[in-house]
Amino acid sequence: MSTTAAAVWGRAEQQDYRARVRGCLLGGAIGDALGAAVSGLPVEAIRKVHGADGLTDLAPAYGRRGAVTYATQLSLFTVDGLIRAQVRRDTGAWHPPSDLHRAYLRWAATQRDWGPDERREGDGWLARQEWLYARRDPARACLTGLGDDVLGTLDAPKNPAARDAGALVRSAPFGLLVGWEPHLVCQLAVECATQTHGHPGAYLAAGAYAVVVHGVARGQDIESAVRGALAQLAPRPGYEPVAEVLNRALGAVRQGAPTPDRIASLGDTDGEAAEDALAIAVYCALVGEDVRHGLRLSVNHDGPSEVTGALTGALLGALHGETALPPAWLAELEGRPTLLELADDFAMEMTQGPALHGPSAASPGWLARYPRV
After folding, report:
1. d(CA 179, CA 126)
2. What integer pLDDT is reported at residue 114 of this predicted model?
3. pLDDT tens for each residue of 213-243
4. How far apart are alpha carbons 68 and 75 in whole angstroms?
5. To the nearest 10°, the Cα dihedral for 243, 248, 254, 257?
6. 3-class SS of residue 146
7. Residue 121 CB partners (closer than 8 Å, separation 6+)
C-alpha cells in the first residue's frame, strides 16, 4: 500500500494537526467514558436514574467516574500499530494490515495476562501500561478474531457474521493519516476491520467512519466529509446498508430538533449493528451545539451508549481540536496521560518521522518505544 507524497509541515500546521490528533483520541475516550455508565439501558431507565434530561455528566462505571471501555483500549493499539507500521517501513516490510494485526494481538494479550510484567521484549511501551489490562466488556468478535495468529482478510475474514461495532470503534485513528488519500484510508480501515468482523456492514462502516474522520481532520465540515465517505463506499460490494443509514442521518438533520426518538429512528436495531451506531454518531456530531451537547445526545438512547459516545467524541475532537473538549470531563478521564503521550507520539511520527528513524538519523529512544519487530 502506498501513500501520496508527504506534505511539507510548517510549525502552525504541525500544531493544528497535533491538536486534532489529541482531540480525536481524548474526545473518543470521553465519549466512551460518558456512555459506559448507561450502556444498554433503555432511555426511560436512563431518565429514571439521572433525571428528565437523561445523563448529563460523567457517572460511575467499572467502579469510578471517567472509566473507559475496550473501545478506547483498542483505539490506542490502533495508533500504536500505525506508528509501528511507519517505523517498519524503513526496513522494506511495508504491510500496514499486518502491523495493525500485531498491535491488536498485543491488546488481546492484555485481556488474558495479569499485567505488564508478562510482556515480551519488543512489545513496546504501550503494552506495559498497567491500566490497559482491565477487561472492559470487549466485543466477543474482537476476542475470537484475535484468538489466534491468523490474519483475517477481505477474501477470508474472521467472524463473517459479526456485524457489531467492535471494529468500528477502533477505526478513528485511520482517519488521522492526513497525508494519505481517502481511498487508501478507507481500504486500510476495511482490511483491518476484517481481522475480527467479517460482515460487510461492520467493515464498510469502519471504512466509512475513517474517511469521515479523515475529512474533518483535513478541515472539511462533517457533511462534506460524509459525502466523501459515501463516494468511497459506492464501488464496494455490500455498501448499500451503510450508505442508506448515512443518508438517513444527513436527512434527519433537517427534520427538526434532536430527540431520542429521532436518534432511535436512524437504525433498526437500537445501534447494535455497526452501521446504526455510525449513523447515530454522525447525526449527533452534526446537530450538537457544541462537543458537550453532541456527546450528551449520543449517549441518551437505547443501545450501546459507549460505542456511540466514543464515535461521536472522536469525530468532534478531530473537528474542533482538544481545547473544545469539556475540561471537567478530561480531568477525570482514566488513562489521560497515556492518551496524551500516544497522541503526541503519533503526531510527531506523522510530521517528523524521517528525523526519528530515517536513513540519515535514528533515535534509539524512539525505536525502543516502537520496535521494528
Report:
1. 24
2. 72
3. 999 999 999 999 999 999 999 999 999 999 9
4. 11
5. -130
6. coil
7. none
Residue 271 has pLDDT above 80, yes or no: no
Torsions phi, psi for 64 (to 5 deg): -160, 160
Would you give the DSSP letter of residue 351? H
- Length reported for the chain: 373
Left if phi > 0, otherwise alpha if psi is -120 to 50, otherwise beta: which for 64?
A: beta
- Nearest Cα to 73, choosing from 21, 113, 129? 129
Q: Are 28 and 96 in contact (CB under 8 A)?
A: no
Q: Is the dihedral of CA 17, 19, 21, 24 positive or negative?
A: negative
Rounded to whole angstroms, how far apart are CA atoms 77 and 126? 8
* Structure-block grid coordinates of residue 318: 478531530
User: Which residues touch 64 (CB under 8 Å, ≥6 apart)?
Assistant: 334
Please say whether the dihedral angle defined by the alpha carbons of residues 252, 31, 351 and 211, taken in this order, is positive or negative. Answer: negative
CA nearest neighbour of 143 among 239, 73, 52: 73
Question: In terms of Cα–Cα distance, which of 78, 277, 94, 307 is closest to 176?
Answer: 78
Count CB atoms within 10 A of the CB of residue 210: 31
Tell me: the pLDDT tens digits for 320-352?
Answer: 999 999 999 999 999 999 999 999 999 999 999
User: Is the pTM here over 0.85, yes or no?
Assistant: yes
Give the position of cell 475480527: 196
Q: Which residues pair with 254 in a beta bridge?
A: none
Place 118 in a pLDDT band, splitting at 50, 70 and 90: low
CATH for 11-369?
A: 1.10.4080.10
Q: Where are the domains of the chain?
A: 11-369
